[in-house]
Amino acid sequence: MKTLFNRIKAGSPVFYYCGIAHLSLLFVLIIISQFDQRHLSGINLWIKPIKFALSIGIYCLTWPLLLQYLPFERLKRRFAWFTVFAMTFEMVAIASQAARGQLSHYNHSSAYNLLVFNLMGAVIILQTLFALYIGIRFFKVKAVQVTPAMLWAIRLGIIMACFFALEGGVMAAKMAHTVGAADGGRGLPLINWSRTAGDLRIAHFVGMHALQAIPLFILLTGFKSAKPTIIFSLSYFTIVMLLLINAFLGRPLV
């Protein structure tokens, strides 16, 4: 594990420190949640910041492992700095809204709350489009330092993650993530996905983590050629699309 973290740090100190900071923040937020028992939409209002701190921490620590195979140094530095800005902005917005006892997403109860939500949306769309551009640039990379299997895993992992990240726009347009019922109430433990209606966050979450899942599949299986990567990626995409359709039909995951 120490070797892995040293490799991440050497690949991009900016991403490394941002990831470590968010994982550290995760523990702080967990402690705060034990003392602050306020609820929002039926759950402790610190649950959402906790989930985002964990997700952002993993996201930032993943990128250096992918970018090490991309030769465009200036582009990588710009992407790292903009992503760190975007993730930090999202985290500050989500945590500060929680501290105020307000929803960070789909909140149009006041001009300020709507402004925060719109700014979060603008920043994350720009970051996602930048990530998509990085994924496209990976098609300029030849499999010299990396196997064809891992190269395709990186390409398809980034593109799929961006595709389902942009699915957030559907939720923003609806100003809700639940289909067939109102947002809120108790859901599945920790993740809080709806147990009574469709939940668009499921496909959003699973699809975005293609960024880690597809390269991890190659690492664990040891495949060398591109074909197994493409087959696994298509299967993964199909499953996530079925999750999305299931949510649109108003059906809960379980």
Strand order of the largest sheet: 1-2
The fraction of residues in strands falls at under 5%
Biggest sheet details: 2 strands, antiparallel
- Name the structural class: mainly alpha
Compute the gyration radius: what is it? 19 Å
Silhouette = globular
Q: How many separate helices? A: 10
State mean pLDDT (0 to 100 scale): 92
| Assembly status | single chain
Distance from first to last alpha carbon = 35 Å
Helix percent reads: 55-70%
> Could you spell the SSE succession in H and E letters?
HHEEHHHHHEEHHH
Number of beta strands: 4
Runs with pLDDT <50, length 5+?
none
In short:
The chain has helices at 2-11, 13-35, 47-67, 73-99, 111-137, 148-165, 168-174, 201-208, 210-221, 226-248, and strands at 39-40, 43-44, 178-179, 198-199.
Notes on the structure:
The protein is mainly alpha-helical and 254 residues long. It has helices spanning 2-11, 13-35, 47-67, 73-99, 111-137, 148-165, 168-174, 201-208, 210-221, 226-248; strands at 39-40, 43-44, 178-179, 198-199. It is globular, with a radius of gyration of 19 Å. The protein has a two-stranded antiparallel ribbon with strand order 1-2. A two-stranded antiparallel sheet has the order 3-4. The protein contains ten helices and four strands. Helix 5 (111-137) runs antiparallel to helix 6. It starts with a helix and ends in a 6-residue tail after the last helix.
Topology:
Layout: H1 2-11, H2 13-35, E1 39-40, E2 43-44, H3 47-67, H4 73-99, H5 111-137, H6 148-165, H7 168-174, E3 178-179, E4 198-199, H8 201-208, H9 210-221, H10 226-248
Helix pairs in contact: 1-2, 1-3, 2-3, 3-4, 4-5, 5-6, 6-8, 6-9, 6-10, 8-10, 9-10
Transmembrane segments: 14-32, 52-72, 79-99, 111-134, 146-166, 202-223, 230-249
Keywords: Membrane, Transmembrane, Transmembrane helix
